[in-house]
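User: Please predict structures.

Assistant: First:
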Amino acid sequence: MRRAIASAAVAVSLLAPVPASAIHLPPSREVRFQNGALVILAEKHDVPLIAFHALLRGGGVEDPIGKEGVADLAGELLRKGAGKRSARDIAVLVDGLGATLGTGAGLEASYVYGEFMARDQVVMVDLLADILRRPTFPAEEFDKVKAQSIDAVTAAKDDPRNVIEDYATAFFYEKHPYGRPVDGDEATLQGLSRQDVLDFYHANFGGDRLILSVVGDFSAPTMEAKLRARFADWGKAPSAVPAVTAPARASGRRVLLVDKPDATQTYFWIGNLGVARTDPDRVPLDVANTAYGGRYTSILNTALRIKGGLTYGSRWLAPRHTQPGTVAIYSYTKTETTLKATDLALETLSQVCHEGIDSLTLVSAKTYIQGQFPPRLETEDQISGAFADVAFHGLTREEFEEYPSKVAATRSEDVARVIQRVYPPLGDLTFVFVGNAAKIRAAVKKYGPLKEVKITEPLLSRLRSGARDGRHRGGERG
C-alpha cells in the first residue's frame, strides 16, 4: 500500500507544472561599426577575465568544389603567423600570459576565440586584430598544417564514430553546400596550395562579415574604443556571403554502405531533413528530441541499450544551421546484431510518430532540460560564445533568458505537432552503415537501393563518382 501511495505521489509531482529556472546574463549592448562589423560588449566583473568570440560569416560552405577543406586550413593557419609574430611567437605569448586562443572554421563561419586576464586586454585586442587582419600564412606552416590535416582525416577513419556524420551528410545532401565536409578529404586537401588559402582569405575576410562578442572584466566604453580603433576601418570582403538555399526533404529510401573490413561493429545513421536554427518550433522540438533520443533515459536509448542490450549508446542527432540541418538516429552494435538493432531503432521512431510521447516522459524531459541548461551560461567564455551565436543567426539574448520559461510552457500538443511536422516517416529515410560489408551487405539491402564505398577511399571523390541512385527529392511535408 505504501509503495502504491508513493508511486501515485511521484506521478502527481511529475505531472505538476515545471517551474522555470532563471537565467541571469550580464547586461550587454551592441555596437555596429560603419563597415558593418557588429560588436557585442558585456561587462562581468566577478573574476578578472575577458573572453571573446569572433565569427566571420562564410566558412566551409564557401569552399570551391574540389577544394573542400580550404576554409578549415585557412582558419587553422590564422594563428600560425600574424603581423610581425611567427607561430612560435604567438604560442609563447599566449602560454606566457596563461591565456587560451583558438582559430578554425565551421560549416558557415570562420572563427577566433580566446580568454585572457583582464590586465592583458591591450595585448589581447592587438593580437586579435593581427590574426584577423594581418595573417601571414607562412609557407612552412602551410606545409606542416596541410600534412597534419591529411593525416588527421586518414586517422579519423580508424574509429567510425569520427566520420559517420561526414559520410551521412555528404550522401544525404549530395551537391548542396552542407554536404561538404569542412575538413575536406585526403584528395581535396592534397590538391590545395598556399595560394588557394591566400585566395580564400582575401576573398572572404572583411569587416562587414565580423561578429565580435567580448565578455568580462573591462569598461565597455574603453573596450569599444580599443576595438573601434582596430576594426572600424577594416574594409569589406570582396565577395558576398554565399546565399545557401534551403535543402529539400528526401523522398523514399536509399542506403550507403561504407566498407571497413576490419570492423567488428556496425555504426548506423538513419535520417532525413530537420529544421533551421531559427525555426519557430525549436523549443517544443528540443523537448521532443530530448525525450526521444537526447539523454541516457530517452526512449531510443532505453530501447536499444537499457532494455535491448544492443549498444553502449544511441542518440537522436539534430544539428541546425541557417538552413535546415538533418535529424537522425545514430547508434552502433555488434556486426551480427546489425539488423536487430536497426529494426528496433526504426520501431521506436514509428512508435513516436504514431503514438507521440506520454505526459510523464515529457515532464521528465522538461525537468532534465531545465537542469542542464543554466550551467551552459555561467563562464565568460560560455556567455561570449552564446552572444556571438545568437547574433550570427539574427536572434537576441532573449533566446537564452526566455528559454527556460518556454520549455516549462511547452504542452503535449505542441510536442505532438512538431513530431508530425519534423520527424520523418519510415518510408522516407536515408541509411548510412559503416562496417564489414561482406558480413552485412546482403542484410542492409532490405532498407533500400544500396551504394557502396570503401572507407580507405577519399570520401568526396568516391561519392561523386559513378551513377546516382535517381532518388526523387520532394518538398518537406507539412
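Second:
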Amino acid sequence: MTNAIQNRYDFVYLFDVENGNPNGDPDAGNMPRIDPETGHGLTTDVCLKRKVRNYVEIVMSDVAPYRIYIKEKAVLNRIHDEALDAIGAEGKAGEKGKRGKGEDVEKAKKWLCDNFFDIRTFGAVMMTDKNCGQVRGPVQFNFARSIDPILPMEISLTRVAVTTEKEAEQQGGGNRTMGRKYIVPYALYRAEGYISANLAEKTGFSDSDLQLFWDALGSMFEHNHSAARGKMNARNLIVFKHATALGNAPAQKLFERVKVERAGSVEKPPRAFLDYRILIDKEGLLPNVQLEEKI
C-alpha cells in the first residue's frame, strides 16, 4: 500500500433530487426522511456511504486493494475467514466456534484494511465469531439536510398485470392493482464531512484512495438511477485542505464560509437548482488552509 494522507480535510457536499425519494425510512412506509420539527429533509450518512461503495465497486471491479466489504449478499464471516487464513491464524475456515484472538486479530485487521477500500475509508465493526476486530475510519459524514423544508408527495400507482388467475377473477378481469410511492418534488441537500489524517495513518487511507473518494462524490449518482430515486445530481463539493494532520482551523468555522441562499422569490417553493445560489467566502482564509471546488 502507498503512504497514508498527511493532511486533514473538511468538506461541504451539495446534491439535489427532483421527483424522487433520496432516502426512504422503512419505519415510515419508505417516506422520505424528515425532521418533524422543521420539515427539512434528511439523508443519512449510511445512505451516502452506500453510494460511494457502489461507485467504487463498479469502477474498480471489486478487486484488491479496492474490494468492498459491505455489499449486497456479502457473507461477512467468509471474508473474516479469508483474512484469518491469509495471516495463518489458528483454526479452519467454516468451522463453528470462536476464531481470531490476540495478535491474529490485529494482523487480520491490517489485512482487511489493505484489501478493502470501504474498511480503510469508513471503518467497520468486524467482531463476529470470526473475530477481526474493529476499525475506525478516517472519512465521516454528517446527515445531509435539505436547505428548505420539504413536502413529500404520496403518489398512487396502478398495475395492469396481476400475479395469479385468482387475482384476475377477483378483479372482474380488470387486472388493476394499486400501489403507492413517495417523491420529493425538488430539494437541495447539504452534507458536511471530515477526513482525519491521524485515523488514515492507522488504516492506510492514501492519496489515491482520497482521489477515488472525490471521484465517487462527483459521479456516484450517475450510476444509481432508478424510478424511486428520480433525478439526483451532485451539485458542488467544496474542500478545505489543512496544512497539517491535526488541522489549522475548526471545521465549523470553515463550514460557515459556505452559504446557500434562495436566488428567486422565497414565496414560491424551489423547483430547480437555479432557484439557489452558493456563496463561498474566500476572504481572510488562513494561509495554511486551502479551498478547492471539486465539482
